[in-house]
Amino acid sequence: MWKRDESVKPATPPAPAPAAPTVPAAAAPPAGDRRNLQMQGENVNIGKSVVIKGELSGSEDLTIEGHVEGRIELKENALTIGANGKIRAEVFAKAVIVLGEVVGNIAASEKVDIRDNGSVDGDITSPRVAIAEGAHFRGSVDMQRAGSAAAKPAASAAAAKPAASPAASPAASAPAPGQKVGA
Amino acid sequence: MADSARTLTDLFGFFGNRRAASAAPAVTAGTDALEISHPTKSLQKFLACLQARENPVLVDLGPVVGSNVTFFGEQLGCRIRVEDLAADIEAHVKAGKPEALAAFLKSRFTQAPESVDGILCWDMLDYLDRPAAQALAEALGRLLRPDGVLLGFFSTADAHDAVYTKYVVVDPQHLRYKNYPASRPRQRSLLTGDIIRMFKGLRVSDSFLMKSHVREMLFRKPTA
How far is CA B144 from CA B50, B119, B169, in A? Predict the structure, then answer.
């Protein structure tokens, strides 16, 4: 009697095809891998077999399950590094969620969230940072107070820093190995 | 007379109880007691020293604790660098080279001298032998800016459990101690005089002996 009428599910309107992220021609995935670049609404998904070397920028939310080396810029959008994603890049975005691996500095104007099993080796600049128990983090966190006179947009602050090589920026002098977070 | 005897008995009982309480076993790994919050008196003072500064630079020598990073970031709007010394100690002990720690710690920190406003040293010195502890204290003294502040915890009891402790900030007055396995126990506990001599470039601004067998000490670097 109270069974929901499955036939009246709201039909998802076909999303207007947004402009895909800019990928240098040399780095574009082969035609056979196009299926790995999926667009779902305003979210672009880079599949796990895709390898991109160079600069990746765009104006929609992006989820990366593949490998990216170089630089990622989504200043007005969110970047999710999926559990299979491996990034060796400088990252600039509005929000960054890490479930996979990142080696390189991250600058986010809103927040950085390293989830359980996520891994970051690099410096983070963001007004909000959350590191889950079980996540790996090595580097520094710069959380400027909102409204502080010295506070600058996170991304520009990080961009002004010398582009340290991802491998060199974290405390490389330590002989040991990764730290497992726990709190 | 009977009343006075009772009073004396009560008095001795009082001392007896106090001894029993103070001799309570230290928290060990794998017990629920790990989740108990312990009061802290120095953390609030540490925060107060840094709150007036704009975007202070903090170095945390403990293992990464996500909630601490968030806490200090939100409280101070700071830049915090986590340098997990426990991992360094562990690596040296596992490699059978604990005696190399002193030389390692002299050049461990890559930051410029006098570039750090606050150091969360926690109880790292407890795990080092005397030369390594001295090397660490000197390196930290160099890192601190004039008027910078260092928070150190020192065990007052000889504990033999091979565990490190993560100090998780609950609020400015409370910490939760979370233990995790270590390859070797704390070294012999340091006397207060020895600690002060180790940090000879700094002055002790506060020292609290806590019921948790921890002496919490706050050091300030004198301004020139």
Answer: 13, 8, 22
